Fold:
Amino acid sequence: MQLWLIPLLPFAGFLVNGLAGRRFPKGAVNAVAIGSVLLSFAWVLKTLFTINLDAINQEHYFTWIQSGALTVGCDMAVDRLTAVMLLVVTGIGSLIHIYSIGYMAHEGGYYRFFSFLNLFMFFMLVLVLASNYLVMFVGWEGVGLCSYLLIGFYFDKKFATNAGNKAFIVNRIGDFGFSLAMFYMVRNFGSLDFGTVFKAAPGASEAVLTTIGLLLMLGACGKSAQLPLYVWLPDAMAGPTPVSALIHAATMVTAGVYMTARSWVIYTHAPLALNTIAIIGVATAFFAATIGLAQTDIKKVFAYSTVSQLGYMFLGVGSGAFSAGIFHLMTHAFFKALLFLGSGSVIHALAGEQDMRNMGGLRHKIPWTFWTMMCAAVAISGVPPTSGFFSKDSILVAANHHAPWMYWLGVVTAGMTAFYVFRAMFLTFFGEYRGHAHPHESPPLMTIPLAMLALLSLGGGYIAVPAFLGRFFPTVEAPEDFTLVAISVAFGLGGIALAYLMYIARPGMADSLAGGLKGLYSLVYNKYFVDEIYDAAVVKPVVGGSRVVLWKGMDVGFIDGMVNGVGALARRTGAVLRLLQSGNIRSYATWVLFGSVVVIVALELGGGAR
Amino acid sequence: MDVILFLVFAIIAVVCAINVVVQAHPISSAVSLVGVMGSLAVLYLLLGAEFLAAAQVIVYAGAVMVLFVFVIMLLNAGAESRKGHSLMVQVLAVPLLVTLLGLLAYIVQRIYRSDTTVHFGGFTHGTPQDVGRALFTGYLLPFEVTSILILIAILGAIVLARKEID
Amino acid sequence: MAEIPIAWFLTLSAVLFVLGVAGFLFRRNIITVFMSIELMLNAVNLSFVAFSYQLKQVDGNLFAFFVMVVAAAEAAVGLAIILTVFKNRSTLNIDEVETMKN
Structure:
């Protein structure tokens, strides 16, 4: 099977570009970066066609950690869930790599960008292919690192580095949960291997499984930007747009969903944890969607949309419909990557402009971008028969089966989703052009990936992922209910219609509405002041405490005092001992003689020689 | 006969050794040291170490001491200057030396009081043949390593002696 | 008493060794100090040969042989160092060679 080739190809690309890319011409950098990812994609296809996915396809490379009873190997495995993820990651990854050639053409640090992107692919594939939690954690941390590097890609801009730090630090909170979950697993199951843990899990007590489930969920919340740890994702848009598409929409942020689905055995025996996931998911979906309603930065809209859609996936997984969650993960990867790449194309066309208030009327100027983005917008709104319709409805039906109020909240969110996406579309592409740049269509290198993603967004729903995964996950017998589907579609269409009414038919209406509901609007516009609340409640006390207690008290007073004290002690001792160091050879020789006499006396006293 | 031989050359060795220490002029010390080495060679012979006795005369009393004398001549070293002193040496040296000698003598007497006695011809395996066989069988590696050591010493000596005064 | 106790050899060795140490401690001429070291080495060699006799094995002789080889190498390097020191400082008094002190 040679699974190791899949992640190692991008890693080779990273090494080549990272070490020598500075001296390469752009063509060589492209060839290495895109070639390695395409080869990896080809190897995924070859692997999936040649193996039997229902058998155990595990490969053991070496024993990583051996400590007492605990043995952790560097193992990789492929099963049906991994197959879906592999295709999404390498497939979308390849398209976004190709797109990046066009998008990054005029940026500095070209080779750096592609080597980081390849490194990201490596870690993401390790995460997906891992067959125990620790190897998965390696990938998990690695993608976090790459995310940090790429968010802060424009490291000469303060906000970009700040956003990178924020992403890294918020993710630490989640990783803390993940690590604790692993410790707890080692303690209770004596292993981190998926097979061993999942075999032992049904026999464990519910309290243990619930604890592990909740801790893993904390990790997933950090990585997948769920309440209350979602705050880093909108800021992560400071990175280049292909990064937003690849890492912060299509792949990395879905790692939490993947990990939760991977641990389904644990969760099915811990209903409380599963229910918590569903609640967090639906709450995040609704909450983020409301913020998305009022954003003016085109990437911020899609960022909040991503948070919201990730909430949907959590809702699906939390409702026990794991295959629906993964299905939505895949379709979302299609249309959200497309939305981001499309917005990147718009930004590219407008030479860096991101504020939708300075756009408008771009429909005729950049038609390719417009039509492909429209496909994605339709898909995310859940209009049949696009991909979003299938996946979103399978989640909502499962949610109704789980708890009807979640279904209704989900439906309202679907309506809001349709509204804000089309609001962005209308503001960007319709009406009069309000900016000053000279829009130009992007090169084919950018539009071809857009077109392919558009096809996937429209037709991706016919990829029978739920049936494919049906043999992997336990099936939830949620009856297909036409009424439920009709209601959610109606909400979606209603959202589109409302957006049309407010931004096309009667353009003044939005402003007057915002003026009428001033308090609510500013609340939403400022994202419920969550960042400010976190700042006041967490960051300020921590910084203040660090300054007063840790810096002034601990660091200067105690640690420095201790270090200085040790230094002073050494100096004083040295001053005394220095008297012995006369520099006189004969004096030294006397000391040697003295030492030998002492040794001989000691030997004699200790029983004598022989 | 053996006892007389031993006593004669032991006394010569000790007297020469004292002379090495007390003579003010390095050249006198060097000549006295040759005396020590020569008497030791006789004692080696008494102990059956024929090869070593020859090597002692040729290498030590010959080559090494010639080197010393050569350096003394080269540097034109006269009687040593009495400049400099060390409190450590003045105070501690004599008691320590006496203690050391006492300890060593005590230990030797305690351990070897009624042990082997030596007479000429009591040990006949110190011939060049025996030493050579042992050197090139059991001690081959140390032997080869010493050859490298000597090579390094030669190089080191050349490098040090060639160094010009800045 | 026609035979010599082995202890006599060892005692002679100890006496010569202590005389060597005394020379090292009391002499200031660096060449004499060096000769004292040779004296100590010779004293130890005598012990080795005596032990070789006692144990009826040739190994003691070989140790003495190796000591001689090392001593020869040491003499070569040591005398070269003395030459260098003398060239640099124009003195053979080891009490005046105390740069490390300051």
In short: Residues 526-579 of chain A form one domain. The radius of gyration of chain A is 29 Å. The beta strands of chain A are 57-67, 70-78.
